[in-house]
Amino acid sequence: MVPLLVAVLADRPTAGVPAALGAMFAGINDRPGGRRSSVSRVGVPALAGAAGLLAGSLLPAAGPPGAGVFVLPVLLGALGLLAGALSATGPVASACGTQLLVAAVIGAGMPLPESGGERALLFLAGAGWALSLRLVLPSHRRTGGPFRYDGEREAVAGVYAAVAGLLSAAGGPEAPARRAALTAALDQAQDALSGPRLRRYASSAAERRLHARYAAALPLAEAATALAWAGEVLPGRVAEGPRRLAHAVRTGSACGPLPAPVRSGAGLRALDDALLAAADAFDRRDGQSLRTVRGRPGLGPPLRRALGPTGREYGVRVALCCGVSAAVALALEHEHWYWMPATAVFLVKPDLGPLVSRVLSRAAGTVVGAAVFAGFAGAAGLSSVVAGPLPAVVAVALCGALIPVAARHFAAQTAVVTVLVLCLVVPAGEPQAAWGRVVESLTACAIVLLVGHLPLPGRRGHGVREAVDTAVAAGHRYLRHVLARPQDGPGRGVLRRDAYRSLAAARAALDLSAAELPPVAGHTAGFEAVAGALERLVDTTTACAVHLGDRAAGLPPSHAERLAAQLADLEAAHRASARSGVLV
Question: Given phi > 0 = left and psi -120 to 50 = alpha, else beta, which region is 96?
């Protein structure tokens, strides 16, 4: 890592530790996608981490002398309550809350000569260096057009490819999975195109073209969903048009002639019209100055979520995990006591998978990482080499390069981060320090496992409940708009995206909860029927929208009967969940 190397060459190796930590967290938070979206995905959590490092450096001075074993856990627990409530409001906020708390723990426990302000600035410098590389360097997969839009271009191409995949799978057993893949592709493209900007409209012709091509994909997605809902196998040529459009987006080339489907029904007519509109959008080389993504919500909904049951439930668990683990580590007088609460904070983060799975992955990854480091440090004649600063820089750089690859599995990421942290905070390379890291991590795993299944007053599963309720409300809004204003294509498209995106979020929350142990999974089991009924209702609503939007066709009686039956199913699922005590 360049920040650590610069600090070592300047004879300030300790100054490189916060910078290396900032770069490490930036690498962990970064994910494939658009460059501009990485600004918020990486930069905002970096600001939270710098604030946490500054706050943590001030915590040891709080309270009377010698009372740190009592005061610090309470203060860290209070900070964990705040960070946990913040984490419940969204993925970027989750990264902010976790980074804030972990950095505060490190700032309170890591003995560095630099002041809190210097640590925060160094942390930002390391994160800024990693972010600048993300923004400046071309991607490994070069495509046509400006390289700064590689991520956005790949995301929009993925939408057209997903449309082609759904059309190919129509009438077969893979159709539901392909429809879910289309929703995921649309979500990714929407996020990529909604990166931070200083003006209301797209700022260049290349960006405007991407926006126009994303907008042109939305009617295609609607028509493909309606055709898949009908359950009929479609000719192979139907998927060829979206497939060619996907290739044109990736390469920046012309789409060429598109094979038109037979206009034998409302769904195929809608698909043909959408293909014609897409071809027209691709022919406009200067693009269109329009926004195709929804505006950002205000602070009201996130604030209500943080202060609501979901934020309180998660905040209490984070506070307990952080405070208890800090108290245990301080009571045992561990030299690196901050490892235990920092580990607990990462483990309690639900984004990383089911609780038991992430605890086992963390334990396995820590043991493997410590074994690798201890073996390297304890080999004959190498302990003195590891003690030098330059080999430590090489090891940190190698681990930093492995983080994006290791991020595919939590255990692998844990192993790489363990080696990296040991290289940073234990440069002398004693194997005892590495195995001490294992003991403290396993203790943190036990604490998180206990607190994660600890019964709390009131109901549990608020996050799943809120996600399902949000999806149900979005589905009803979408249905009302389709029935009241069937010719309003743009408005219908916004509500359709909201309905499917909310449904995907509810499904993800349900899948995560279902993978937990019975004491946790049992609190949300009744939501599965609600989500299934809602999914069928939203798909039927899309099919109805296509028929009502076709001026040559009204809503068939079979569609109306199916809508009524599915609305009744959804209501029955709500009542059944209420009787079982799942819903409030």
Answer: alpha
